Q: What sequence folds into this?
């Protein structure tokens, strides 16, 4: 089933929310309102969006250090996320996680993971819970091309095949692991074929086309829900920003980012296709843009108005009970 | 009361908890054994036979044989613990911590804190430690010190069958990640163990012997060497407190300090290497909190700062022996300023 009108508008709103969120946190970072490190998802929005539209709240995802987009797409509260990233009270992780550990546990977003390759073994566990407890839930691991080279990812794929678990390994190949090209670092050049080598089917998709991502992920989710075991997807994409905010991206070719931003902007591609196919009107899209901008603005203002976490909470939640 | 071995007590704790709670699963390498083979499907029950019999009773959905893949085992257990199961993951030898530590200390230990108290990780890592079986440098280590230093983990090292059962049941019911360190020298030891399930709280030391001249703290199997020394010295009229912390995280500091307040002398016995280890840690705690009570320097009896050698003569020299403990006790007793 392709995206229909209703789902397209949801997809567009999610992608726009992620884009606005990322550009705004970049601005606030520049103003000194955000401590620490930021790794932005701008440019990759169609992938998290297209996948999560196929999931229910009780399905699971794990994410990477570039996790804001996955969290928003899985239904994370934008206001709580902004507070968390700005290190204010009321944040999704009580100020103990930050950008690299953003999470929405109640929505099945089990956490962004700042260890590259840290997430795939965890999603094997979530899928094991689904199978053992007899639910029809699926687990999706979002992993980059960088994480695709980690041994933990290989072990996770193998174990998921051996135990025939409902796990989806979604590789977002944005062309770079930090400042090294995937073409150099991925020995096989092709992550999908490597996944097939572990004994699971693998699909490929243009990660800038939310329509294609949605349909590809739909096949993968159906595969898992029907008890056929794990499956992999490789989505090709580019990132609009550096590895981290402040990365001058000296490793990228002259004019490369500008060109790719023109060619691979998922929002522009989706809008053009939707208008042509009459899935949405320009007025509808502009209305969403305005609503999203207002939502992000109010989330920033609310975060700026909130105090820092209270230091009395430093030692809470290390353990479940008195230690 | 029935007499059971350490191995039987651990097995019984798992079986009883699995009957009580259908979310408890066992996962690891050869925890049944024989997967995909033509022979016995419960061929091993773990390499030391500790999980033997669980597979026939609970089946392959709850007693899960994995490939040799420690990172994925620990990660899968952590992910499963975050999503509704209570996994008991077996890490065959504690030496293998090196290939899976990220999933334990960066993932399982941190979920609750890093996600603001909204996640939990009720898993147990059962692992086997201890030198003296000529296992060489990679099948002999006790790395309790490495996990004890990690906030978010709890660490249990039972020294007898009774404690093993009660502490393991507590570990399985605990909502945090618990590292359960079994000493491979103790599997055949036995004592009275009740048939019914019971729990032992973490952070409560056990006094194997009570005395007033010297406090000896022993971790894992070394506590039994300390008891043997104390019993011999008792014939000379020297009386020792012999303390087994039972859990190194949380640590019953109070019991150790109260004992030192009486004896004024402390010997800590630990089969781990000396730098940044548990003996050093306990020594610093006592130096800070009971300095005024000390009548002699604190002495540490630890393994040597080297990898564990293979040849019996070398391995015996590497690890703490009763003679080393006795010499340390006599040294603190004979100390004069």
A:
């Amino acid at each position: 089933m392709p995206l229909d009108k209703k789902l397209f508008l949801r997809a567009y709103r999610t992608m726009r929310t992620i884009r606005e969120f990322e550009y705004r946190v970049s601005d606030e970072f520049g103003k000194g309102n955000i401590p620490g490190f930021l790794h932005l998802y701008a440019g990759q929005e169609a992938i998290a969006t297209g996948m999560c539209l196929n999931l229910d709240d009780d399905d699971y995802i794990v994410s990477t250090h570039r996790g804001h987009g996955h969290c928003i797409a899985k239904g994370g509260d934008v206001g709580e996320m902004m507070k968390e990233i700005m290190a204010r009270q009321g944040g999704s992780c009580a100020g103990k996680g930050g950008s690299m550990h953003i999470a929405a546990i109640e929505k099945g977003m089990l956490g962004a993971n700042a260890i590259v390759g840290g997430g795939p073994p965890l999603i094997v566990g979530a899928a094991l819970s689904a199978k053992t407890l007899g639910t029809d839930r699926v687990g999706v691991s979002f992993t980059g091309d960088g994480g695709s080279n980690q041994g933990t990812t290989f072990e996770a794929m193998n174990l998921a095949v051996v135990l025939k678990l409902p796990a989806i390994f979604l590789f977002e190949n944005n062309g770079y692991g930090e400042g090294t090209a995937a073409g150099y670092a991925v020995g096989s050049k092709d992550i999908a074929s490597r996944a097939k080598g572990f004994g699971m089917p693998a699909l490929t998709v243009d990660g800038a086309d939310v329509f294609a991502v949605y349909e590809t992920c739909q096949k993968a989710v159906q595969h898992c829900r029907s008890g056929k075991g794990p499956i992999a997807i490789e989505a090709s994409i580019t990132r609009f920003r550096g590895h981290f905010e402040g990365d001058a991206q000296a490793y990228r070719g002259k004019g490369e980012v500008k060109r790719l931003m023109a060619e691979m902007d998922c929002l522009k591609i989706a809008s053009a296709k939707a208008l042509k196919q009459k899935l949405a009107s320009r007025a509808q899209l502009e209305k969403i843009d305005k609503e999203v901008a207002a939502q992000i603005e109010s989330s920033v203002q609310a975060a700026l108005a909130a105090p820092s976490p209270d230091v009395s909470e430093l030692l809470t939640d290390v353990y479940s009970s008195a230690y | 009361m029935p007499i059971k071995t350490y191995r039987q007590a651990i097995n019984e704790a798992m079986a009883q908890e699995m009957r009580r709670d259908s979310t408890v699963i066992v996962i690891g390498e050869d925890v049944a054994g024989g997967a995909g083979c033509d022979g016995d499907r419960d061929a091993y029950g773990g390499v030391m036979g500790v999980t033997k019999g669980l597979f026939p009773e609970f089946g392959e959905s709850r007693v899960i044989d994995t490939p040799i893949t420690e990172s994925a085992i620990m990660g899968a257990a952590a992910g499963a613990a975050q999503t509704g199961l209570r996994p008991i993951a077996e890490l065959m030898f504690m030496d293998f911590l090196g290939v899976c530590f990220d999933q334990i200390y960066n993932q399982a230990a941190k979920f609750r804190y890093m996600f603001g108290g909204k996640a939990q990780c009720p898993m147990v890592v059962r692992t086997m430690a201890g030198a003296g079986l000529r296992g060489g440098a990679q099948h002999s280590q006790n790395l309790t010190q490495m996990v004890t230093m990690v906030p978010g983990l709890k660490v249990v090292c039972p020294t007898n069958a009774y404690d093993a059962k009660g502490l393991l049941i507590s570990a399985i019911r605990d909502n945090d990640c618990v590292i359960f360190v079994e000493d491979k020298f103790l599997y055949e030891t036995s004592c009275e163990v009740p048939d019914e399930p019971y729990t032992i709280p973490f952070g409560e030391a056990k006094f194997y012997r009570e005395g007033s001249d010297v406090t000896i703290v022993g971790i894992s199997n070394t506590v039994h060497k300390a008891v043997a020394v104390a019993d011999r010295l008792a014939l000379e009229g020297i009386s020792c407190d012999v303390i087994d912390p039972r859990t190194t995280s949380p640590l019953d500091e109070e019991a150790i300090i109260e004992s030192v307040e009486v004896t004024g002398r402390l010997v800590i016995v630990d089969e781990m290497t000396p730098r940044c280890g548990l003996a050093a840690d306990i020594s610093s705690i006592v130096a800070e909190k009971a300095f005024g009570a000390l009548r002699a320097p604190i002495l540490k009896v630890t393994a040597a700062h080297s990898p564990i050698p293979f040849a019996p003569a070398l391995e015996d020299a590497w690890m703490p022996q009763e003679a080393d403990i006795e010499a340390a006790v006599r040294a603190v007793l004979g100390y004069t300023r």
About this structure: Chain B has a mean pLDDT of 97. Chain B has two domains: 3-192, 206-334. The radius of gyration of chain B is 20 Å. Chain B touches chain A through 48 residues (CB under 8 Å).
